[in-house]
Write a structure and sequence with these properties.
single chain; 14 helices; 0% strand; disordered C terminus
Length: 366
Amino acid sequence: MSGTAPPASDRAHGSELPRFLSGLYALLIVYASLEPFSGWMEPIPGTSFFLWGNFASATTRADIAINMTAYFPFGFFLASIGSHARPSVRVVRALCVAAALSIALESAQMYLPTRDASGFDVLTNVGGALLGAFAALAFTGSSRLRRKASRWRHGIFIAGKSGDFGLALLGIWVLAQLNPAIGLFAATFDPPHELAPDLVSTLLEAAQSAFHVIGVGLFLALLLRQRRFIGGAVLLLLGATLMLKGFAATLLLRPAAWDTWLRPGVSLGVALGALSLLLAIWLPRPIQMATCAVALLSSLVAPRLASDLWQARPPLAHFDWSYGQLLNFNGLTHAVLIVWPVFASFYLLWLAGQPAWGHRGWNESV
């Protein structure tokens, strides 16, 4: 099987990728909206329900833009589910789900003194979801784009729900790279500058990034149909992550702190991880799977050996950002990068137990 055309059985089934992305993205919204999940208390007696309050109170244009941007992908994913359904049904579904989630989370924020429940936030959230739904209609409305996306999805990556869920997990990991306060292929923040980095901390930081490069690279390799795709796909992932991190740093960090995400230990770890990955991608798939899980979990163990590295807090002074969502953004991306290796390892364990897994991966003879 040397070609890239997907089997007819694969093409007969619609992709579950939008459904998985919708579910995972909803979890991200819940976490960002309710963090820090502490300090709950009853609203002050006489406080009216937030929907009946002043909609425009203490709302800035930045708040509007951030809310709409946050819900735009959610609306896009929701409206992409069941692309054969009528456009009006998909738009209404996206609006109803986004509105229900937003109202539920704003209601819960009434019990968090650190958060401000607002009916205007619901409107802007739903507005962002509506724009995302229209973007999904424009994408799925083009038969040429749909054919190309289907050919790319089924021709390059393993088929079925297992492949869709793996791609959704990888997409969430890529999204977490938007935080430039966390090093490249790392899960911890930059240690305080007043602490001079010693050799041990630098080596542990390098180990963290090296293990993460190996783990994420092998995770991608295990999602591919054919071995010949691995080299290009891994290089594309490394390059895209580097550009995404640099773009986020340019947009969010102060000029003097632009390169904090590419510290010496991180750079050394990425280089060592990439070299090791060149050898690991030639291993048999069962060994690749075990190596991937070990590397991902080791990327969490390495920084635990250096207390300064693991306990480092978000370097807020590095950000050129004057809006109130910074702490939520840092908390969300940090949580994703800490939890993701564990979820990915469980996914690999589940994938290994699938009866047809050996026929869904890359062709050993290619």
